[in-house]
Write a structure and sequence with these properties.
Helix content: 40-55%
Number of strands: 12
Largest sheet: 5 strands, mixed
Structural class: alpha+beta
Strand content: 5-15%
Length: 467
C-alpha cells in the first residue's frame, strides 16, 4: 500500500540545501517568494495538429501504485489518440526524482511534467521553471469547487495555486480493535488526545506472569511529519512569517511549549512502560503494530490497507490525536503534487500536460486512483465512483481519512510550513525528539537545540534565492 517516503530524510535534506544554494533567480517576495512569469496557453494551441503532442511525465510511483498510474496513462492516451500522448517515466523515490529534475534543469532538458513531494514545494517555486497551476485555472476558468479544500490550501502560496495535488495522504490513529474489546474499551471511540491515549494505554498494556510487557498500549515511530501534524492541530505555526505564507521563513518553531509537552509525554509513556520505544525507523513502527506489540499507533492513511492485510486482528482507525483536548484540530497533508514545466517547452507541450492533469483530476480517474492505491481522492466526487464505493464498502475505515480532511480547519497552520529547506527541518525535529527520549537532555533543551541547528541552513537558502 502507499505511503510517503520514509527514512530518506537525511539524503533529502542535503539535496534540498544544495538545491537552494544552486539557485540564482527568484526574489524573496511575500507568500513564500519566487515563482515565474510563465503563463498557460489556451486550448487553441492543440487545434490542427500534424501529430500527437508528446508529454513525458516523471513520477515516483512503482509497484501497485505504478500499475494503477500506468493504467490511467493508457486510458488517457486512448482517449486522445493523435492529439496528446503521455509517457510515464519512473524516477525513483521522491528525493531521487527531485535530484533528477535538478540535473535536468542544469542541462536545459526537463520533462514536460513532474511529480514532486510536498517538502520540495518552495524549491519548485524558486526554480522558476514551471507554469503556476493558477495560470491554467485562470485561462480555462477551471472549477476547483470539488477539489479537497485542505489540499488546495497546502499548495496555494501567495494567493495562487502553484501545483496540482494528486497523490496525497494524511496521518491517522490506528487501533487494535480486538485488544480494545478485550480491555473493555470501545474501538469505535479511540482516544482523541494525549491524556486519552495514556488512559487507554493503562488498560491495554499487558504483562506476562514475570511482569514483562507483551503488549504495549501505544507505540509509534519518531517521525518528523507527526510533529507537523500535532502543531497544525494545535493551531501552532511550524515556522515564522505565518508558516512561510506571508514571506520567507527565517526560523522553525518546533521548540514551542506544545511540542515540548508532547515530547515529555512521550518520554514518560516509555518510562512507565505504557509505550514501546520505536526510534525513527517507520518500518519498525508499523511492525510493532501489525505484530500486536503496540495496540495503538500513528501512521499515514496510505498504511491502512497494509495494516489490514498484515494484521491477525481487526484494525480500527480514528482521527490523528490532539495534544490537548481544547486544541482546535486540523490536518496537514503529505505526499506529492504535479508540476508542469514551462521553461524550454512549447505551448503545445504545456497545454498537452494540462489536458492530462485535467483527466487525472476527474471523478472517474480519482475513483480508480483512490481505490487502487489508498491515496486520498483529490476530487471529492471520486469517492462516489464505483471503484471507490466498492473499496469503502469492503473497508469502511477508509472513510475516516476523508472525514478528517473534510473537517480540517483551513488556515495558515494547516497549510503547513513553506520553506526551502523543509526536509532538513523535519530531520532536525526528529533528532531533537529522539535525543530527548534517549538521553538525559530535557525535552525543552533538545527541541531548542534542534530548532537552532536549522537556522544557518535557512539563512543560506534564503540568501541563495534573493535577487
Amino acid at each position: 500500500m502507499t505511503r510517503i517516503p520514509r527514512r530518506r530524510g537525511v539524503k533529502a535534506a542535503a539535496l534540498l540545501a544544495s538545491l537552494g544554494l544552486a539557485l540564482s533567480a527568484c526574489s524573496g517576495d511575500g507568500g513564500g517568494g519566487g515563482g515565474s512569469d510563465l503563463t498557460a496557453p489556451g486550448p487553441e494551441v492543440l487545434d490542427d495538429l500534424d501529430e500527437a503532442v508528446q508529454v513525458e511525465f516523471w513520477h515516483s510511483m512503482d509497484a501497485t501504485n505504478g500499475q494503477v498510474l500506468d493504467g490511467l496513462i493508457d486510458e488517457f492516451n486512448a482517449q486522445n489518440e493523435g492529439r496528446v500522448q503521455v509517457t510515464g517515466s519512473f524516477q525513483g523515490q521522491y528525493d531521487e526524482a527531485l535530484a533528477s529534475h535538478r540535473a535536468a534543469i542544469q542541462q536545459g532538458d526537463t520533462a514536460e511534467m513532474i511529480m514532486i513531494f510536498d517538502l520540495g514545494t518552495q524549491f519548485m517555486i524558486d526554480s522558476a521553471q514551471t507554469v503556476p497551476a493558477q495560470s491554467f485555472l485562470d485561462v480555462d476558468d477551471y472549477d476547483t469547487s470539488s477539489i479537497e479544500d485542505a489540499l488546495l490550501n497546502y499548495f496555494t502560496v501567495g494567493g495562487e495555486l502553484r501545483s496540482f495535488p494528486f497523490n496525497n495522504s494524511t496521518p491517522l490513529m490506528y487501533v487494535n480493535r480486538d485488544a480494545f474489546e478485550e480491555a473493555g474499551l470501545d474501538p469505535d471511540s479511540p482516544p482523541t488526545d494525549l491524556a486519552g491515549i495514556r488512559e487507554a494505554a493503562e488498560e491495554l498494556t499487558v504483562r506476562d506472569d514475570d511482569g514483562t510487557v507483551v503488549q504495549y498500549g501505544f507505540g509509534a515511530s519518531v517521525y518528523g511529519w507527526f510533529i507537523e501534524q500535532f502543531m497544525a492541530r494545535a493551531a501552532t505555526p511550524y515556522c515564522d512569517a505565518s508558516n512561510g505564507r506571508d514571506g520567507r521563513a527565517s526560523e522553525v518553531l518546533f521548540d514551542d511549549p506544545k511540542i515540548v509537552e508532547l515530547v515529555e509525554w512521550w518520554d514518560q509513556m516509555i518510562e512507565d512502560e505504557l509505550a514501546v520505544q520505536i526510534g525513527r525507523n517507520t518500518d519498525d513502527g508499523q511492525a510493532a503494530f501489525t505484530s500486536g506489540r503496540a495496540a495503538m499507533t500513528l501512521e499515514s492513511t496510505g498504511s491502512l490497507g497494509g495494516f489490514i492485510e498484515q494484521s491477525d486482528f481487526e484494525v480500527g482507525a480514528g482521527y490523528f490525536p490532539l495534544i490537548g483536548a481544547d486544541d482546535p484540530g486540523g490536518s496537514v497533508i503529505g505526499g506529492a503534487s504535479l508540476w508542469i514545466n514551462g521553461e524550454g517547452h512549447t505551448p503545445e507541450e504545456i497545454r498537452g500536460s494540462w489536458e492530462f492533469v485535467q483527466f487525472l483530476l476527474t471523478p472517474e480517474s480519482q475513483s480508480v486512483w483512490h481505490a487502487g492505491t489508498g491515496y486520498l481522492a483529490v476530487n471529492t466526487e471520486g469517492y462516489d465512483g464505483p471503484e471507490a464505493s466498492e473499496r469503502a464498502e469492503e473497508f469502511p475505515q477508509f472513510s475516516v481519512a476523508a472525514d478528517q480532511l473534510a473537517d480540517s480547519v483551513i488556515n495558515e497552520n494547516t497549510a503547513g510550513c513553506m520553506m526551502g529547506v523543509m526536509s532538513e527541518a523535519r530531520v532536525a525535529a526528529e533528532e531533537g525528539w529522539e535525543t530527548a527520549l534517549t538521553s538525559e537532555t530535557s525535552a525543552e533543551e533538545a527541541m531548542a537545540n534542534a530548532a537552532a541547528s536549522v537556522s544557518r541552513t535557512i539563512e543560506e537558502y534564503n540568501a541563495s534565492v534573493e535577487d
